[in-house]
What does this fold into?
Amino acid sequence: MKKTLLTFCLSLCALCGMAQTQTNYNEKLVVTIDGNSTDSIPAAITVVDNGDGTCDFSLKNFMLVAGESSMPIGNVDLKGVKMETVDGVSNISTNQNIVIQPGKDSNYGEDEWIGPGLGEVPIVLTGKLTATALYVNIDIDMSESLGQIINVVVGQEKNVISGINGVKVNPSTNATAIYTLGGVRVNKATKGVYVINGKKVIK
It folds into this structure.
């Protein structure tokens, strides 16, 4: 009985150690095809930090929008995206082939989503994120199926900043810099010629 309880506790601790953190982002998305860019449209992104230097990235209900018409593509789900965090900013990147899954939108039936019918498509993603903002660049290579490479930009890079905005130094008004004519800093001026706070002084 004790052995079973100990095994259960160890398993529970292991699960807690591998806890995942999910963050949802609502950003604007711009699609560029053959040099022509669409207007920015809302995008729903989910990023799950796997706690092992990777994350799962999901762009839900991706559509190509041109004026009043739209073409439903589907969910772009990327697993095991490399993630490195420095000063509160996580850089993410991946290059993988996926099958785009059907989206979930009451305006479209499951068979209306184009993504699944395209088969495996190469996707290159780079970007960065914080707890509150995200910026990613996604290239979807549809050259074989649609004869196009689709570039998707989500968010704005300028909005992704670290919590460290810089170090402010308050110079002390009482600090005195004393140097010999040879350029050696000293604590105290005795007899001789010195440079004190940028001025030549004879003691």
